[in-house]
Design brief:
about 210 residues, alpha/beta, six-stranded mixed sheet
């Protein structure tokens, strides 16, 4: 497929060839959903915990005798139905993480980039350079392209791109990702995805292995 390369002012400079298998497939939204769900599950801490009647503080003595009082029988004041008793069936620490096949992740990334391309929300820049790694300089450079609330920039991972990543850390609605360290959640919920000409080619080769 043909894609336009623009400068930071949005002026078209030339066209380049991109892989159809990466940027122009039929988006599979169910696979995108699975990839995002997997990422969010892997981020969960799973540390919430409650005390059972065996763990809660309190005496183990029987509150009153079994028979003859006219009251319901109880074996301990730590019973879950009592105030300050243990919690029945409460949460315990658990691991929510799980893995999905690499092919599924790859298809999800291809689907997201194809969807952004289809919606005209993918922009390929001639170049993007922040010499000193300052947030102000990056904001000025991409200000005309950052009217949207959420933007992702795909980087090539070069030394100069490390400065872009450092500069972008302080922009709350900007996410900088290396072409080989993508996240489906950030990409899918970005209103614009920016690539440099170099990162677009590297990304195509990486996802089409």
């Amino acid at each position: 497929m043909k894609a336009k390369v623009v400068d930071l002012n949005g002026k078209e400079l030339r066209e380049i060839d991109l892989l159809d298998d990466v940027f122009s497939i039929e988006p599979n939204k169910s696979v995108i959903y699975e990839a995002i769900k997997n990422e969010l599950a892997n981020l969960r801490q799973g540390t919430s915990s409650t005390k059972t009647k065996a763990e809660v503080s309190g005496t183990g003595k029987k509150p009153w005798k079994q028979k003859g009082t006219g009251r319901a029988s109880f074996g301990t004041s730590r019973n879950p139905v009592w105030r300050h008793g243990g919690i029945a069936f409460g949460p315990k620490p658990r691991d929510f993480s799980y893995s999905i096949p690499k092919k599924v992740k790859t298809l999800a990334y291809k689907s997201i980039f194809s969807l952004k391309n289809l919606e005209k929300n993918m922009v390929i820049l001639d170049k993007l350079v922040v010499e000193n790694g300052k947030t102000k300089d990056l904001r000025i450079q991409v200000s005309k392209l950052l009217n949207e609330s959420k933007v992702s920039i795909i980087l090539s991972g070069s030394e100069s791109d490390k400065l872009i990543k450092r500069a972008g850390n302080n922009l709350p609605n900007l996410t900088c990702l290396n072409y080989n360290m993508l996240t489906a959640h950030a990409l899918y919920y970005s209103e614009k995805v920016l690539l440099t000409e170099e990162s677009a080619k590297l990304l195509g080769d990486y996802l089409n292995k």
